[in-house]
Amino acid sequence: MNYKFITVEGNIGAGKTTLSQLLQQHFGAKLILEQFADNPFLPKFYENRDKYSFPLELSFLAERYKQLKEMLNTRDLFNQYIISDYLFIKSKLFAKVNLLEDEYKLFETLFDIIYPNLPEPDVVIYLHAPLDKLKWNIKSRNRAYEQNMDEQYLIQIQSAYLQLIKSEKYRTLIIDTTEADFLNNASHFQKLLSMLEKEYPIGLHYLHFG
């Protein structure tokens, strides 16, 4: 496979981490996962979005940058696969949804300073999950602070993601996860692996399962 740096993206509860871990195990890759458990602002954000949005988004921006910079600067460019369960540019996506206008302008300034220092993924796997499946996954993984998440918030994030993948120039494989089950259906995971062996131009490519 020619794609050395693979990023898995999607809405909250879409299955990003699960698929990233499966790919990491298959390719013997380095794995970059978002550090939710260590972020002290995240539980507070779900209790009071207005008060904690700005420190939350700044903390995620800093942590994502530190993770990607350290991991990608030490990789073996010729032999080492890297799997990440987030795009760095998602920082702007969530900031746009969560921050007030003046806060977002400051955030965007900081983002634009550091963003050019990071390499882009060779391919993005975007998991598009229907709202019911997102809610079921969120309930099943049982993170206490997520259990009362506003449905409208998930819809906002879903819309923002769709705008993002249409506007950014990535090599993006879009998978409708309504039927796909990579964890429990080995044939689905094998089908994805075979798709990753193909060469895709920059742009959107829709992959079908079921």
Report Rg: 17 Å
CATH second-level architecture: 3-Layer(aba) Sandwich
The number of E-state strands comes to 6
Uncertain residue ranges: none
User: Any idea what the CATH superfamily is called?
Assistant: P-loop containing nucleotide triphosphate hydrolases
- Which H/E pattern describes the elements? EHEHHEHHEHHEHE
Overall spatial form:
globular
Tell me the distance between the termini. Answer: 24 Å
Whole-number mean pLDDT:
92
Supply the helix-strand structural class: alpha/beta
Please tally the helical runs, counting DSSP H or I stretches of 4 or more residues. Answer: 8
Helix content: 40-55%
CATH class: Alpha Beta
Query: Strand order within the widest sheet?
Result: 2-3-1-4-5-6
Task: State the CATH topology.
Answer: Rossmann fold
- β-strand percent reads 5-15%
Domain tally = 1
The largest sheet is:
6 strands, parallel
List the helices and strands and how they pair.
Layout: E1 5-10, H1 16-27, E2 30-32, H2 41-47, H3 49-73, E3 82-84, H4 90-98, H5 101-114, E4 123-128, H6 131-141, H7 151-167, E5 171-176, H8 186-196, E6 203-207
Parallel strand pairs: 1-3, 1-4, 2-3, 4-5, 5-6
Please provide a brief summary of the model.
The protein is an alpha/beta fold. It has helices at 16-27, 41-47, 49-73, 90-98, 101-114, 131-141, 151-167, 186-196; strands at residues 5-10, 30-32, 82-84, 123-128, 171-176, 203-207.
List keywords for this structure.
Rossmann fold; 6 strands
Question: How would you characterize the overall build of this protein?
Answer:
The two termini are 24 Å apart. The chain has 210 residues and is an alpha/beta fold. Helix 8 links the parallel strand 5 (171-176) and strand 6 (203-207). The chain has one domain (5-207): Rossmann fold (3-Layer(aba) Sandwich). A six-stranded parallel β-sheet has the order 2-3-1-4-5-6, sandwiched between helices. It has eight helices and six strands.
